[in-house]
Amino acid sequence: MADLEVSPLTPLPLKNGSMEPKATVVAVMMSLDGLWNSGLPGMLAVYDLIGECKGEGKVSGNALKTLQDYSLIDSNGSIHDSIKNIVLSAAIGEGFNTSLGNPVKKD
Predict the structure, then answer these.
(1) pTM of the model
(2) Among the listed residues 3, 27, 23, the one whose alpha carbon sits nearest the alpha carbon of residue 12
(3) Element housing 12 (H / E)
């Protein structure tokens, strides 16, 4: 019988048109969800990350340290393209009306 499980390396189509490995999508979403559910400082860090991914700002201060601790921003302050694709695909809404959804594009 054929294996019906999806390989962790199987690329998933994201809402922004990119393709990212399933394992990367799952790991990034776990980090985003953990931050989002950790309280106001975590939510603000996610807002800052979304803003930087959209080119609307620069993450700094406590948010930068927090996002680095969650491996969402590199130690040099850059955001990997895969993380940016997932963040942009998961972000719903604008400003403080932003929430996180499933970044995977449905057929």
Answers:
(1) 0.91
(2) 23
(3) strand 11-13
